Amino acid sequence: QKEVEQNSGPLSVPEGAIASLNCTYSDRGSQSFFWYRQYSGKSPELIMSIYSNGDKEDGRFTAQLNKASQYVSLLIRDSQPSDSATYLCAVNKNTGNQFYFGTGTSLTVIP
Amino acid sequence: EPEVTQTPSHQVTQMGQEVILRCVPISNHLYFYWYRQILGQKVEFLVSFYNNEISEKSEIFDDQFSVERPDGSNFTLKIRSTKLEDSAMYFCASTQGAYGYTFGSGTRLTVV
């Protein structure tokens, strides 16, 4: 069983729309959850972190966590062509331990 | 904004040769990591390093791999005898602790 699963996509949305990215994880003991954005050929860039159930908003990004369902999501409002990238979900069990990454969801925002 | 620096950005080596990948983590960070990403695949954990010792390592991190923090600022990954399947992007990362990593820009390793 994979630690972290994401729909690989590709996901296409028109400019200005809401993009919704989903992630599930297998270990109920997971404590910290992260979304990274990765442009082709570049390193992952942290965009959101969430640690408790509920929603967390930062600008156009909202992360949602439901520990009972073992589910994390990322909403991108008013999507821009510059948001076109692969979005990686990462899960951590304890401080200092490794992050488990999903395979990523490829997002294309169409102008 | 502080960043994690990796050198070289691209390394080409012959199979069987040793390579050393270098990283300078963010200065006040405590935990250091190496990950790799084979083209088109997911980011895979190799090793974590804390308090001058390895705290966790994956099955990938076998006897051919080693890490060092020789001088309190650099953090290196050595591959003793490279194989074709070691070709990948290698990312160094660091964190203060309970926060997300900051990744370096990566070293693209090509084994020929």
Describe the 3D structure.
The complex is a heterodimer of chains A (111) and B (112). With 111 residues, chain A is mainly beta. Chain A has no helices and eleven strands. In chain A, a hairpin with a 4-residue loop joins β7 (61-66) and β8 (71-76). The N and C termini of chain A lie far apart (38 Å). Chain B is mainly β. Helix content of chain B is 0%, strand content 51%. Chain B has no helices and eleven strands. Chain B is globular. Chain B starts with a strand and ends with a strand. Chains A and B meet through β4, β5 and β10 of A and β5 and β10 of B.
Offer a few descriptive terms.
heterodimer, A: mainly beta, six-stranded mixed sheet, 11 strands, B: 112 residues, mainly beta, seven-stranded mixed sheet, globular
Please outline what is shown here.
The complex is a heterodimer of chains A (111) and B (112). Helices cover 0% and strands 55% of the residues of chain A. Chain A is mostly beta strands and 111 residues long.
Order of helices and strands of chain B: EEEEEEEEEEE
Mean pLDDT of chain A: 94
Distance between the termini of chain A: 38 Å
Low-confidence parts of chain A, pLDDT < 50 over ≥5 residues?
Answer: none
Helix content of chain A: under 10%
Tally of individual helices of chain A: 0
Largest beta-sheet details of chain B: 7 strands, mixed
Structural class of chain A: mainly beta
Number of helices of chain B: 0
- Helix/strand class of chain B: mainly beta
The description of the largest β-sheet of chain A is: 6 strands, mixed
Compute the number of strand runs of chain A: 11
Query: Could you say which overall geometry of chain B the principal axes of the C-alpha atoms support?
Result: globular
Average pLDDT, all residues of chain B = 94
Strand content of chain B: over 45%
The span between the termini of chain B is 36 Å
